[in-house]
Every structure is written in structure tokens, then in C-alpha cells.
Write a structure and sequence with these properties.
Length: about 525
């Protein structure tokens, strides 16, 4: 049966009264002709049926807007036809013409939802008035329904537009937030290797946090982190502008921390409103000199861990920046005996705990138990209340060459020996620490993903070496796995954003680093079940 309302093609003219279709069901030819003379002045289109059966068929075929029917007819009476129509359509207006207005007929008609009654012989003025009123009523309802459908369509288009704009904003944030050293090993004094990992989780699409990690031409690294006041568009713009300008200064100026901060302050004077403040931190990493110069303005204290596992807080020396900030103090942290440094925005420290306090109260304890950023983030998500978190940005500068409490290594000549190599490592590790069954399975998957890289590249006999070490500086031991391949089979890992193999590997470990020229892969994994030695 055709639909009386097509929401995709109806215009304002389609819902005008003249476009309504009337179905006239009348078996008497003279009455039918007389009615048609009057009806043509009210409706431009009238369908005609000579009995109830034909009227029912026309209703199914033509989908009229109003039905005007006699009661006494062959095949089907008016009420019998209405009963069948009501089983299909509960809303179409029905008008009954009859010369017998007894109580039984009236009661049955009312129960069927007949809208109007016209007695026979009918008064032409009454007929015109009833049909005109009903026509306007139907047209008004049709118009209101069409407005509702159009509003739903507009809302759908608006939601699609908003989703498109949100995705564009997300792409812009990802484009501005640089990480020149993602999954890359950085070399410091005495060949000591370091790495930088970061997690950035916006609460909304318009994020007030931002960061950039840049590798400078002189071998140093610059880290910038920002947390703009408030939320929404204003905070997002401030964070994006600040991060973009910091990138510009790195790309177009000789970088010293003092000149960088001076230029940044001058820029802020022009973009911050009077009531705005900006929490941020500049960190100039000089691994060759074993020092970290920093200017921390309003960010939470840094968490610093020494090689022997001692943890301390290092608070910033400056308040948040505003349009008229004074001079900024630069402090220096020696990295000589440092295992890692954790920098964060207040979305971490101010996150709500289930016991009506904030994560600041347990952050230091969780950091002591977590040797990696990923391990700390797991504890954070375990203890905080979901749905009440602010934008989260957390960054770790981590030494990769740590004093080991246990070492293991084994060379292999071809792919067939790699299964035995994995089994040998897992057995040796299980004898050294309390390794959970789930952790053993995950390590096996991780090592198979890493060690079968050459197999995927067609080098069935490529030799290599697998080594492992444990660091006990955190409450949970840190397992470092290092795969050495004399062939350039690990080169495919170097494009971290494109390598599906590296994505699979990262899923089973805390972090992964590639050592140039692509011949070494370092994998770090926290052993939760290995807090105590097995013997």
C-alpha cells in the first residue's frame, strides 16, 4: 500500500489542502453524481467506488487521505469496510453517511473511530462545512508531522556535521602534537639508552591539554606540555596556539630554554585574555650532559625515581602563566642516577577516587609500584572513577639501560630454533620470579610476534639473539627484552604509525623501542606477579 507521507520528498505545497485525496464510496449512482459536483469544489482529486469491497480495494491501492462512505451497500457495508480499514490504518479520517441513525449503528461507528456523521438526505451546506473542517484538520496534522520529520532530518544533519567537525578538530590536535621520538631509542653519555613515552587522553573533542616532543639538531630534546584553564573551545584554542607556537620556535630559532621562554611569554601576552591562565612546562633534555633543564609553571610536581628505586616529588618553581607574567625561573635536575621522570597535567592528580578523594593521595605509591607509564596508567584507571576525569596527559623520560638483578641471553641461527629460544627464556624467567600464568601466555605471544618478523619477510635462516633482564627498582619488576637481528628485518618496525606488526607487539607489552639502524627491538613489560622472588 502506498505511503501517504514520504518524508524525503514532501514540500510545503504537498501538504496544502488542495492536494488531499478523498475516497467516495456510494452505491447509488444519482447520489454519487450529486456528491461529485460538490466534492470537486473542495478536492482536486476524488476516487470513487460503487460498493464497500471496491472501496476497500481503492483504499489499499490509492492510499487516500479521507474516506466518505455510505452505510448500506452491497458486498460490504460502510461499517464493515471501515472495520477492515481500521485494521490497517488507525488514523485515517472516516465520514459515514446513513439514513438510519439508530443507536447500534452510532455505537459501532464510534467504536471504530468514525470522525464525522452526515445524515441522508444530506444538507449540502452541512456536507461542505464538515468536509472543509476535516480537510483543514488533516492538512494541519500533515503539516505538523512534516515539520517534525524535517526537524529530525535537520538534527541528523547537524549531528553528522558536528561529528565531522569533531573529527577534524581531533585530526588537528594530533597534527599539532608532535612526537619526533616515538618508539625511538635516544643515546646519552657513555652510550646509555633512553626513551620517551606519552599518553594523551582528551575528555572531550576540544581538549585543553597539549604537548610536543622535539628532537633538536644538536642532539638535545625539547618537551613542552600545556594545560589551559577551563574546558571547551577557549581552552582548546589556547592549548593549540601555545603548542603550535612552541613548534614554530623550535623550527625557526636557535633553541636555548631562556630565549624560548622569552619568545613564548611575548606571544602569550597577545593571545591570553585577562582572566585566562596557562599551566605549562618546558623541559630541555641533555642526555650527553646528564641534565634536565626545566621551567615548570603551574603543573603538578614531577615524580622522579633513582636507579635504586627511591621516589621523590620535584615541584615546579613558577605559578601558571598569564598575560602579564614576570620572569620565569629555570631549574636543573641531574640525570646521573635517575631511572625515570614522570611529567603530568592535573587531569591525573585531580581525578576522583571512589572513596571521595583524589588520585593525588595515592599517585606516589602507584608510581613506586609502576616502572613504566603504561603500568601507572593501568593503576590509575583501576582506582579512579570513570566518566569524571579531565583531559589526561602523562609523559615519561625513561632510562632503558638499568642495573639488572637478573640477565639472560641466547643466540639462534635459524627460525626453527626460535620456539626453543622462547621456551628457554620463559622457563628461566619462571625460575627467577613469580610469573603468573596469564603473564607467561602474554609473553609467549609477544615474543612470537617479535621473533617471527623475519619469517614474514621470507628470511627463514636469519640468525639473531634474544636477551632479557630484570630491574627491581620499582615494586613490580621491569622485564626488558632485546631482540637483535643481523639482518635489516626490524626496519619495518621503524615507521611506528604504519607498522601493524609493531601495533600487535605494543598490545602485549608496556612500550617498544627501535634502535637504529633497525637491527634491535627493545620491549619493556611490567611483571605484576613478580613482586617477590620465587626462591
Amino acid at each position: 500500500m502506498p505511503s501517504r507521507t514520504d518524508s524525503n520528498n514532501v514540500t510545503s505545497s504537498d501538504v496544502a489542502p488542495a492536494n488531499l485525496v478523498l475516497l467516495l464510496v456510494e452505491d447509488d449512482l444519482l447520489s454519487r453524481d450529486m456528491l461529485l459536483i460538490k466534492l470537486k469544489h473542495i478536492f482536486t482529486h476524488v476516487e470513487v467506488a460503487a460498493d464497500g469491497a471496491k472501496g476497500l480495494q481503492l483504499f489499499r491501492d490509492q492510499a487516500p487521505d479521507i474516506i466518505l462512505s455510505d452505510q448500506i451497500m452491497p458486498c460490504l457495508s460502510g461499517l464493515d469496510m471501515f472495520r477492515k480499514i481500521r485494521a490497517i490504518d488507525q488514523n485515517i479520517p472516516l465520514i459515514l453517511m446513513t439514513s438510519f441513525m439508530d443507536n447500534d449503528i452510532l455505537l459501532e461507528a464510534i467504536n471504530l473511530g468514525v470522525n464525522r456523521f452526515i445524515p441522508k438526505p444530506f444538507n449540502h451546506e452541512v456536507l461542505v462545512r464538515v468536509l472543509t473542517e476535516l480537510k483543514l484538520e488533516v492538512s494541519g496534522k500533515r503539516y505538523m508531522e512534516q515539520c517534525r520529520l524535517q526537524e529530525i532530518t535537520l538534527l541528523r544533519y547537524r549531528d553528522q556535521y558536528n561529528a565531522m567537525q569533531q573529527e577534524a578538530a581531533r585530526r588537528k590536535e594530533r597534527h599539532v602534537a608532535r612526537h619526533d621520538l616515538r618508539n625511538k631509542v635516544i643515546y646519552g653519555a657513555d652510550g646509555i639508552r633512553w626513551g620517551i613515552t606519552v599518553t594523551h587522553t582528551p575528555r572531550d573533542i576540544l581538549c585543553g591539554d597539549g604537548y610536543t616532543i622535539r628532537n633538536l639538531p644538536d642532539g638535545r630534546q625539547l618537551v613542552f606540555m600545556v594545560d589551559a584553564m577551563g574546558s571547551g573551545l577557549s581552552a582548546s584554542l589556547s592549548a593549540l596556539l601555545a603548542t603550535s607556537f612552541c613548534n614554530y620556535l623550535v623550527d625557526h630559532a636557535t633553541v636555548s630554554l631562556k630565549t624560548l621562554i622569552t619568545g613564548f611569554q611575548e606571544y602569550l601576552n597577545g593571545i591570553l585574555m585577562e582572566d585566562e591562565v596557562l599551566s605549562c612546562g618546558f623541559f630541555l633534555v641533555d642526555l650527553m650532559s646528564r641534565k634536565l633543564e626545566m621551567a615548570v609553571c603551574g603543573l603538578p610536581p614531577l615524580l622522579v625515581r633513582t636507579l635504586d628505586g627511591l621516589v621523590r616529588r620535584v615541584p615546579g618553581a613558577n605559578p601558571p602563566l598569564h598575560g602579564c607574567s614576570g620572569s620565569i625561573e629555570i631549574t636543573t635536575l641531574s640525570l646521573s642516577d635517575i631511572a625515570d621522570v614522570m611529567v603530568m597535567t592535573d587531569g591525573i592528580t585531580d581525578a576522583s577516587l571512589s572513596e571521595s578523594s583524589t588520585y593525588r593521595d595515592r599517585l606516589e605509591n602507584d608510581f613506586q609500584a609502576s616502572p613504566t607509564l603504561a603500568a601507572l596508567l593501568r593503576r590509575f584507571r583501576l582506582h579512579t572513577v570513570r566518566g569524571e576525569q579531565d583531559d589526561l596527559t602523562l609523559l615519561q623520560l625513561q632510562r632503558l639501560d638499568l642495573p639488572a638483578a637478573w640477565n639472560w641471553r641466547q643466540e639462534f641461527e635459524e627460525t626453527g630454533q626460535r620456539t626453543g629460544t622462547i621456551h628457554g627464556l620463559l622457563e628461566a624467567l619462571a625460575g627467577e620470579i613469580d610469573l603468573k600464568r596469564e603473564e607467561r601466555s602474554e609473553l609467549e605471544i609477544l615474543l612470537n610476534e617479535a621473533l617471527t618478523n623475519d619469517l614474514a619477510q621470507g628470511r627463514l635462516k636469519a640468525p639473531g639473539m634474544l636477551s632479557a633482564s630484570l630491574w627491581q627498582g620499582a615494586l613490580s619488576p621491569l622485564l626488558t627484552l632485546e631482540l637483535t637481528d643481523i639482518w635489516p628485518g626490524l626496519d619495518q618496525f621503524r615507521n611506528a604509525s604504519e607498522g601493524s606488526v609493531l601495533d600487535n607487539i605494543r598490545h602485549h607489552c608496556d612500550c617498544a623501542y627501535i634502535q637504529d639502524p633497525g637491527s634491535r627491538l627493545l620491549l619493556l613489560k611490567t611483571i605484576v606477579g613478580g613482586a617477590d622472588y620465587a626462591h
